Structures are given as C-alpha cells and as structure tokens.
Amino acid sequence: MERDILNILRGEDPEQQVSGEPEVLPEIDGYSDDASFDAAARPDGEAASGETASGETEPCMDEGDGERAPAGIAGGLFKKLSLKKPEKKPDEPEKPSKKPAETGKSGKKAAKKATKKNPEVVEDGDEASQELAARRDLYDWIQSLMVALMVCIAVFLFGVRVIDVSGSSMYPTLINGDKMLVSGLFYKPKAGDIVVFKTDSYDPNKALVKRVIATEGQEVSIDFDRGVVYIDGSPIEEDYIAELTKTKLDFIGPQTVPEGCVFCLGDNRNASTDSRKKEIGMVDTRMILGRTWCVAFPLADARLIG
C-alpha cells in the first residue's frame, strides 16, 4: 500500500511487475521505509506531524482551512485527499405556511389580536372569511323575511281576512271605517259572536257583519213594545246595543232556528238590516266567512272583540 502511494506520487504505475530484489525506497521529506503512517504505531508515541532534519517536530498548516496536517508525504496526501467543506447555501426565504386560515370564533379572535398589533396588515384569508360570513348573514335574513312573508300571505288567504266596516248597523261596537281581522278557521258559531256572512237572496256581492243571537234549535221571540229579545222564553241581557229593539221589519215570532243556521241582529237595532228582514232570515252557517276577533285599524282604536 505504501509503495503504491509513492509510485502514484512519482507518476509510476502501481501495478507494474517488479522482478528481482525489492526496490529500496528513498527517504522523502523525512519519510523512511521503516516509518509507519499510523502515529499510534510509533513506539515513542509521537504525533504524526512533519519532522525536520534535527528530529524536532514542526507543525504544518494546510492553507485555506487552518487545520493541522502531517508533514512530508502524509501532508501531501492530506492536502490531496482532504475533503472540501460543504458550501453554505444562501439564506432561503421562508416558505409560506400551508396552514389554512382559521375561521369561526377562534379565527376572528386571532384576526383581532393581529389587527391590534399591526392595524395596517389585514390577512387576505380573514377578509375572505368575513365577506363570506356577511353574505351568509344576508342570505339568512332574506330567507327569514321570505318565509315570514309567505306565512303571512298563507294566513291571510286561508285563515285571516281584513274586512272594512261600512255603515252604522253595528254601532257602538263597530264604527264606520274600522278594519277588522276576521278568521273562520276551525270556527263554530255561538251566541254572542260577531260574524261576517253573505246571503244570495239579499246581495251576493255584499258581506254583512252582525251579532249571533241564537243558534240551531233555539226559539227566538221579540217583544217590540218593550224592546226585549227572548231566547227559549227567557229575556237576554244586551249591554252592547245602542237602543232597545223597537223596529219589527218582517219578523213574526216566535221562530225556531233550523239546523245549520243562526239568527243574527245588528247592535244598532233600529238602524240595521238583519234576520228580521225576509230577504236575509236565518243565516246558513256555511255562508259565514268567519268571526271578528279584533279591530286592527285605526291603531288608536285597536281593540279585541269579545
């Protein structure tokens, strides 16, 4: 191995066959054939540094990297075989974080903290999330309004109606111009209710509002001299009328209310066209549009109707 290294340094082929006696290697730079490359093999424990002619050791520095290298042949090998230090790469820019922008409450809190520290810096992800949240809120509001509007339309079409009072036949309970909320949903007429109905024999295009006085099977009679109404032979207390019932119209009694019908009178008895009139008579319950629950307008006069 030592011979091969020396032959390489002298430019000779290390595999050349040598015949005869082994070639005596000359001493080069303090190197002898008897010397060992391994400093640990030296009997005197000397380090593998270059030796001068006086036998003193002299440190040998490798140019460029400042590391101590052995002198002589070992120093030459060290220079040729030493590895270059890896070059330092220039500082690379930090890669952007692949972590997605936080959304929700935690993301908003983090955005607020970052904004307080540096109000000029606003994350694009935060802007996008805020814009998306605003659009969702707007969509929810629009959806809620649409649902509410559809419910109101359905209620007013099939459950509740707004009907204007025209005339004074129900004074003092109802006044001309009042707007009533009327509902016929699951309604069954009973005495005392104020109802809205139509009758083909009187005016099919006009709705009438009157008070139910008697229901099917009850007997109605009126004492026009005293102005008192009797139901099944007993006078009824009417604290809602404007004046006593003195106007007879076409009524001849007593009369029994037939099945599926009601007998109705206006609260302003002497100025009302009602069941006393022949063209109206007993009102078919199927012609009742509904019961009046309240007066909704004008707001100053809004009230429930008992």
Largest sheet: 8 strands, antiparallel
Globular, elongated, flat, extended or rod-shaped: what is the shape?
Answer: rod-shaped
CATH topology of the largest domain: Umud Fragment, subunit A
- Number of helical stretches of at least 4 residues: 4
- Quantity of strands, as a count: 16
| % residues in beta strands | 15-25%
Give the H and E element order: HEEEEHHHEEEEEEEEEEEE
Low-confidence segments, ≥5 residues, pLDDT <50? 27-71, 98-102
What is the averaged pLDDT score? 74
Q: Give the C-alpha Rg.
A: 59 Å
Judged by helices, strands and strand pairing, the structural class is alpha+beta
Q: In the CATH classification, which architecture of the largest domain applies?
A: Ribbon
CATH H level of the largest domain: which superfamily?
Answer: Umud Fragment, subunit A
* Number of individual domains: 3
Termini distance? 124 Å
Query: What CATH first level of the largest domain would be assigned?
Result: Mainly Beta
Helix content class: 10-25%
Can you tag this structure with a few keywords?
single chain; 306 residues; alpha+beta; Umud Fragment, subunit A; 8-stranded antiparallel β-sheet; 4-stranded antiparallel β-sheet; 4 helices; 22% helix
Protein described:
- With 306 residues, the protein is α+β, with helices and mostly antiparallel strands.
- The chain folds into three domains: 80 residues, no CATH class; 49 residues, no CATH class; 143 residues, Umud Fragment, subunit A (Ribbon).
- 22% of the residues lie in helices and 23% in strands.
- It is built from four helices and 16 strands.
- The strands form four sheets. Strands 5, 6, 7, 8, 13, 14, 15 and 16 form an eight-stranded antiparallel β-sheet that branches. It has a four-stranded antiparallel β-sheet with strand order 11-10-9-12, with no helix packed on it. It has a two-stranded antiparallel sheet with strand order 1-2.
- Strand 15 and strand 16 form a beta hairpin.
- The longest helix has 35 residues.
- The chain is rod-shaped and about 155 Å long.
- About 16% of the residues have low confidence.
